[in-house]
Amino acid sequence: MVINKIMLLKQNKKIYPNILILDSGVGGLSIFSEVIKILPNANYIYVFDNEAFPYGEKSRIFIIDRVVNIVYAIYKMYTLNIIIIACNTASILTLSILRRYFLCPIIGVVPAIKLATKLTRSGMIGLLATTVTLQSNYIQNLICKFATCYNIIPISAPELVILAEAKLHGEKISLLMIEQILLLWLKTVNILNIDTIILGCTHFPLLREELQMILPNHIQLIDSHKAIAQQVLYLVKQSINYSNYSIIPIPNKTYYLAKNDKISSLIPHLNKCGFYHIQHLLL
Ligand code: DGL
């Protein structure tokens, strides 16, 4: 079997890694859309934990327990080749734990602090993220490692997560709503001469256009999504274990944790992303 797959590769035939992408909600779709651009031939399994959404205000233990259980539930159903924790909040808390228990490569997303220090001119950087992310030791360590000579201004905006979620559920959201959420911060951004804002939550790139419209023109919004997509591609190319890869494509699948009437309003967007198989996941 292994030899067959290597021969297939040599003949340039396709193989399809099974890739799990997990978030509390729709934020992970912003990562998915970058990954699928450079890796169209993969079997994607997108899981969103709408039962415990939002993660950003929950306790550390709760999030760890939740994420480990969800990954385990999917792990039992599929031969996973790559796991992407497409949520800053969950990555910061669970990556090291997950890597102890699950053997396949696990990629997380964390705020692009290092990149921001390379791009800022004023040295004033805003970090827009959830409360859990901003209060984590992980972020403090990242700042100590890469940004001691810069000012990182924390901007906590849990309401923005809800708004991004609403947008993809087809609800009308307005610039005024975002302005109201960021009212205090908009003043701070100007007073402190912030020129770079890190989108430290995967939900926020879904509001990039709106944010760009209400922020001063010179402010650049950055995230690590493209870098993550490259990392996934690199892992697939480097894999020494192609024997685990599927040689047939399977339809992309979505799993949700809570059955509720909000699911139906998300279906058009999931379909647009190429997810037609949408199922309930029981833990
Ligand atoms: N999308 C998640 C993140 O990147 C968090 C959203 C939430 O609070 O659930 O942090």
From TrEMBL:
| Keywords associated with the record | Cell shape, Cell wall biogenesis/degradation, Isomerase, Membrane, Peptidoglycan synthesis, Transmembrane, Transmembrane helix
Q: SUPFAM superfamilies recorded for this chain? A: Aspartate/glutamate racemase (SSF53681)
Taxonomically, the superkingdom here is: Bacteria
Kindly tell me the pathway this chain contributes to. Cell wall biogenesis; peptidoglycan biosynthesis
Report the Gene3D superfamilies cross-referenced here. 3.40.50.1860
Q: Which residues bind substrate?
A: 23-24, 55-56, 88-89, 202-203
Q: What is its EC number?
A: 5.1.1.3
> What residues form the membrane-spanning segments?
78-98
Q: Which reaction does it catalyse?
A: L-glutamate = D-glutamate
The record's similarity note reads: Belongs to the aspartate/glutamate racemases family.
Recorded protein name is: Glutamate racemase
Source species of the chain: Candidatus Palibaumannia cicadellinicola
